[in-house]
Every structure is written in structure tokens, then in C-alpha cells.
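Standup notes
- DV: blocked on the single-chain target, sequence here:
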Amino acid sequence: MNKIELLVPAKNLAYGQTAINHGADALYIGAPMYGARQAAGNSLQDLEQLIRYAHLYGSKVYVTVNTLLYDDELEDVRQLIHRLYDIGTDALIIQDLGILKMDIPPIRLHASTQCHNNSLERVQFMQKLGMKRAILAREMDLETMRLIHDNCSIELETFIHGALCVCYSGQCYMSRMTTGRSGNRGECAQVCRTSFDLLDGRGRTLMQNKHLLSLRDMNRSKYVRDIINAGVVSLKVEGRLKDENYVKNITSYYRQILDGILEGDADCRKSGSGKTTIFFNPDPTKTFTRGFTSYYIDGNREKIASFETPKAMGRRIGSLRQDRSGRVFYDGWETIANGDGLCFVNDEGTLEGFSVNRVEGDRLFPHKPLSVFRQVDVFRNVDRMFEKALADKTAERKISVDMIFKESENGFILHLRDEDGCEVDCGLETPKIDAKNPEMADRQLRTSLAKLGNTPFELRKLIVESLPYFLQASVVNKLRSDAVELLQQARVEHFRPQDSPLDYQPEPLFDAADYKRNITNELHRAVYEDFGTGEIEYGLDKTLDFKDKELMACKYCLRYELGICSKQKKNPEVHFPLYLKDANNNRFRLEFDCKNCVMKVMM
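- DV (later): unblocked, structure below
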């Protein structure tokens, strides 16, 4: 039976526990250093505590050590990996293949999407390296996922929700070139979210001060069943830098979708334990969103850019207008509350936001004067009522447990067995005193045993095999509490990961490795030498030689967005090549590989 995993981001210990409580089957979280989100590192102590909490619910914790490494960092990383193994980390997510040549413990390794897992051949290479899982490129469609599943034994993971990089992950050098901060080193400056001018081959400005490389966010909720049927076992949500409300909302949203799918599927089940009950109505449009795209999942193209702003606009709820006296009126289909945050695109083409101080009928009282000189679409990016709902108890996750209460030679035994088959016995030595009212004694015993309250468990079945003796409620409560503690310890041990030795199978595969292989240290170079590579070029993070290099490779295409794709129509007014110009007057030439539907941003 396939175990399907909902994999959720955790910025820190608290967010990780929140994700588990809302139904995450697994978490990914940053190590103290060397993670692809430098601002989301965590101490080993916090990681160990989170791992124990996750294992209690049968969930897993994957730690990111997925930056490119320099030679003087290799020993630090090796020692870090040993410590992560010792605290029970379920797997490491890595990018730098030099880790495979280190003396590391038998810990599972997952190939980060930064490894550029965009094809069958690339995933087959990851399998030969000994990786247990490949995190697929976000750009990959269902047909390619199925092809890879049918021709590989490696586990497959793919993103289903969250922010998008405009280029293939691991193949972006624009931040490093323009700011010195490398996306491959966890320091991405998000240059793609800034504004550019678009110039044609004659120097004419086609578009000015627009966010030409900023994409909407991914939402593949309508394709979850299709993705599972394509052979993917792990469905991943992006967002290690998002806030706790995002974690609650998006985890709950996909937990409900997955539970609905898996409930009627005899061949699949969720990989974690317990039943998650959600106490609010999840809605992905009510936490951080730039608008949504399914991002080529069905093989079709769509317009996915957000030229006006890289910020979260939220959901469109109607329109605004302002009369000559400055009064602002709302015409829409959703109720606005005091404190809501609204935004619109003003006459200058920029996003303008405001908070609502007061609402009277269809009139709004903004906290500041607005630049509304015509009727405009209005979006809500802060929903106070929704935030209030998220501030209350939003979810509960419970593991089913059966109890048997029976006599022993010197007292009583409480036997617990949970839904995963973990079992414990907890003994109580006490005199056996006949109950004056057997019926009441039996009822009180059952009531006390069933009080699982704030524990991770809920009672599925209770069997009392003992005669109705008199037992003080405090004694029974302690017995139950001790038994629950033993079961929690047993579960944490039960879900501790098994050793996973590296199955490294080198063979001649490559004649050459260019800079896009991202080799930045001697161990990484040695991996390619093991696979027969003779001509090896170091990556740009090491050489810093950006001249005439491909800074980005994108499935996203500006020609398509602007309606001048060569497969659609030709526009004689546009003279190629096209260029992007940033605020610092850097010019980047755009090349279009129309056969493969790829846009390249060149230095």
C-alpha cells in the first residue's frame, strides 16, 4: 500500500508543532546552517524536540542542508550531519553532491529540487547516486512525472502549493551576479521580484518599471488526485519563511483534500498517524497569495505573471470608487470588517494598500487618503475575521487507542494498544477491596480511564476484565497518566528512522560537466569523476565568471505573456533580441529556445 505524505514547511519549532497539529505527515526545516533559506535556521536542541513531537504522531522531519558548499565548509557539514543523525532526523535534503563522498552515517538523503531534477535522466542519476527521493522541478507536468515513476524506483516528491521561482531551481545566478547574494547558498535577494524595463533590439522601451519576472503562486489543489496517480508519494507545500497563520491555513486545506481522496482509496493511505479535526474553514486565498497558477501541471501554458506587484494582493472582492468630495464607496460580494486590509492598482500602475477604519453601509473610511480617480478592482489581503478564527483553537489531532484493564497477582494492569500497533503495560500494586456498589465502581473506573483529555490519544475501545473493586479516582488517574506516558515514549522509539546506507553506484555517464552542474568543491568534483566525467567546469558560485553566461533558464516566457510567442503570432513591431534593464542599468539579453519552450536570461 502506498503511503501518501503531506509535507509542510516549518520555520521553527513552534511552527513545526503547529503543522503537525493541523495534519502534516512530514515537515522540512532548516539546520543551524547550510540551508537554502538562511533566515530559517534552527538549533539542534529545537530540532531534537520537534523530531520527538513529530514521531509521536508518526510524522517525519526532513532537515535541509541544501546549499552549495565550499571546500573549507566540508568538515563542518560532515560533523553537522552526524549530529542530525544522532537526534533522529528522518532524512537530509541536500543539493551539494560532495556530501556523498563524506564519511557520513547511514541517513536517508533526498535530492533537493536545487539539484535540477527536471527530467527522467536527471532523476535516474539521483537514483544511481543513492538518493532515496528526488524532489521534482516545479515546472514538471503530470506526463513527465508518470514517465519517471515508471522508469525509476526512487521516491518522488513534488510541490503543490506556494511561491514560485521564475527559473528552474538551482539554475539561477542572477542574485549572485547582481547583489553578491547567492540563491544556491541560501541568500537569494529575490531579484526576480524587482521591477525591470523591457527593451527591444532597437533600444525602444516596450514596458517600463514592471515586475516582468514575478510570478503568481502555485496552487495545484485541483490536481492532487492526478499527482498521486502519477506516482508521487510526497506532496510539498512551499513556505519556510511564511507566518504561522499560513501554516495553519494551508496545512488544513490540503489535509482535508487528501483525507477526502484517501478515504475511498484502497491502495493508498496517509503516511502519518491520527485523525485531524479542523475547527475553521481553510481558504488559501485568505493568507499570503499573489494569485494562483497550476504552473504547467497539465502540459498547457497560461499567463502566470504579476506585472504590477510582487506583493500579496489577496482575493478580489469587488470594486472601489471615490467621489469628488473624497468619499470612498465599495461595491462587492463580501462583507468588509473594521481593520481589514484592502489594496488596488492605482492610476500609476502600482499597488496601493490601506486599512479600513470604519464601515458604514457601502461607504469605507480608509486610514489615509486614497489615489482612486476611477472605479477600480479591490482586493482583500488582510481579513480580520479570518485572522480572529485562526487565533482560536483551529485543529486537533488524535491517535486511536484501545485499553484493557485487568487484574494482576498484586493489583492491576492497564494495557494500551494504539492504531499503529504500539503496545505498553502499566502496573498498579494495590490491595483489592470489594466495592460496596459494584455498578457505580465499574462506571467510575471506566469514566476515569477514558479521560484522555489533552493527551495525543482518543479512546477507541475499553475492555474491563477485572471484577468491580473499589479504586480511588486519583489512583486510576495516575495509572492512566503513567500508561499514556509510556505509550508516548514507545511511539517516539517506534518511529525512529531505520538506518539507510548509501547505495552509490558510479558508472560512466558524462563526458563533460559545465558550470550549471554547480560544482564548488573537490568532493563534488570527485563525484562527477566517478561517473566518467573528464572535462569539468566549476560553478559560477566559485568562479564568479558571469560574462556571456546563462543567468536563468525559465519555463516561463515573456513572449508568451505578451502575446508575441512564435507559436502564436508574429508582431512586426517588436525587434529582437529583447532585453531586461534593472534599476542599476544592468542589461540582460533574453534568448528564446522555442523548440523546448524555455526562456534564458543571459548576461
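- Follow-up: Residues 32 and 41 are 5 Å apart (CA to CA).
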